[in-house]
Amino acid sequence: MDAAAFDPWSPEFLADPYPAYAGLRERGRVHWFEPTGQWLVPHHADVSALLRDRRLGRTYQHRFAHEEFGRTAPPPEHEPFHTLNDHGMLDLEAPDHTRIRRLVSKAFTPRTVAQLQPYVEELASELVAGLVADGGGDLLGRVAEPLPVAVIAQMLGIPEADRAPLRPWSADICGMYELNPSQETAERAVRASLDFSSYLRDLIAHRRDHPGDDLISGLIAAYEDGERLTEQEMISTCVLLLNAGHEATVNATTNGWHALFRNPEQLAALRANPDALLSSAVEELMRYDTPLQLFERWVLDDIEIDGVKIARGQEVALLFGSANHDPAVFAHPGRLDLARQDNPHISFSAGIHYCIGAPLARIELAASMRALLTQAPDLRLAAEPERRPNFVMRGLAELTVEV
Questions:
Q1: Were 399 and a residue from 44, 107, 139, 184 both cysteine, which residue would form a disulfide, CB within 3.0 to 4.6 Å?
Q2: Is the pTM higher than 0.90?
Q3: Tally of CB atoms within 10 A around 351
Q4: Which pLDDT does position 224 carry in this prediction?
């Protein structure tokens, strides 16, 4: 394939990757990408199927040593990041993934999430009121970011006074999920992993002696079939919930509003009839400019895609952003259609790693959008936004608005 068509480090590609995805889909179902040593999979049907295929995994270490799998162990100096990352359920496979998800899912029952809705809506309203009182400002820093961070921190039981470092820690750790992260990125992720883990270790110790009704206390107390989480699994789970619980929501919010400002007729329709359109608008904005563009899987047993054999030990890059714009599934995928009904986007993944917090994310997105539509009916873009230089986690550096 033409390497220039897919260049995840190019500012032009990052500004709009969707034409390049169309080229990938037209040229075939799977493409070797030498710079990252991965097979790119751009079609919705293949991405959806492979997310559910147990011949692939987020890790291989439950079955193979690094050497057996033809891989090199991470550098020893990166160990704090990998210890933290490798004990979270996103990067585990059965049986550990099953055990941890079963315990954590108790905190994300429909009833529990529904009980959070009034708190989410009240907080969203307060944040938007502050933005409106100032005549506008950075929608990312004033609304999109503090809302999900506060909600997850509230669930975990992290005191308000301790929350300031959470977002910087998270951003530094998430830098490692980009393609070919630099040494500087790795060093920041290691420092954040050490600091975040140390903080949570102390908080867990405090909750053992002073339990509350928060998620950390619940994880400490949780038993199921005689199983409980180790301390490291608890730490990794809390970090994962914070990272995944706000990173996608922040980016979905800013990407979504940027898309609305660029499609004024759709924004006008939403303002005219928010009750009818809000639910489908959340789904369409998640699809239209996908916050998580790529999800990686290791090939644990040989597979074949369209006659191309992909051997055990290789890695596939499932292109969520491309899958969400596949015309085989979505009519006129390049068109923003807030009333779109048939919308099987995969922005929350699929299979055993389907996002456990998806119902909460939907509530947060709807709450902030409704508050902005109600309190800032003339919200408009004040300056063309700067995009973060990231590919995998697609978002804006800021989104300056006027009311």
A1: 139
A2: yes
A3: 15
A4: 63
Q: Which residue has the tokens 């952003």?
A: 321
Handedness of CA 217, 189, 350, 348 (dihedral sign): positive
Half-sphere exposure (Cβ direction) of 120: Cα atoms closer than 13 Å: 25
pLDDT computed for residue 219 by the predictor: 87
Say if residues 343 and 255 touch (Cβ distance below 8 Å): no
Q: Give the residue among 79, 76, 64 at the shortest CA–CA distance from 298.
A: 64
Q: What is the DSSP string of 250-304?
A: HHHHHHHHHHHHH-HHHHHHHHH-HHHHHHHHHHHHHHHT-SB-EEEEEESS-EE
Instruction: Output the six-digit token pair for 94.
Output: 């059965």
d(CA 65, CA 230): 22
* Phi-psi map region of 312: left, alpha, beta (phi>0 left; psi -120 to 50 alpha): beta
Say what the alpha-carbon torsion angle 325, 176, 353, 315 is, to the nearest 10 degrees: 70
Q: What is the CATH number for 242?
A: 1.10.630.10
The residue whose two tokens read 């991405």 is: 47
Sign of the four-CA dihedral 20, 25, 26, 30: positive
The one-letter code for the residue type at 26 is: E
The range of the structural domain enclosing residue 90 comes to 3-402
Cα(300)–Cα(302) distance, integer angstroms: 7
Length of the chain: 403
Q: Is 71 exposed, middle or buried (0-12, 13-18, 19+ CB in 10 A)?
A: middle
Residues of the chain with pLDDT under 70: 1-4, 224-225
Number of domains in the chain: 1
Tokens 């596949």 map to which residue?
326
Residue 372's nearest CA partner among 121, 17, 1 is 121
Helix (H) or strand (E) holding 201, with range, is helix 183-209
End-to-end CA distance of the chain: 46
Burial class (CB in 10 A: 0-12, 13-18, 19+), 132: middle
Alpha-carbon gap, residue 299 to 390, rounded angstroms:
25
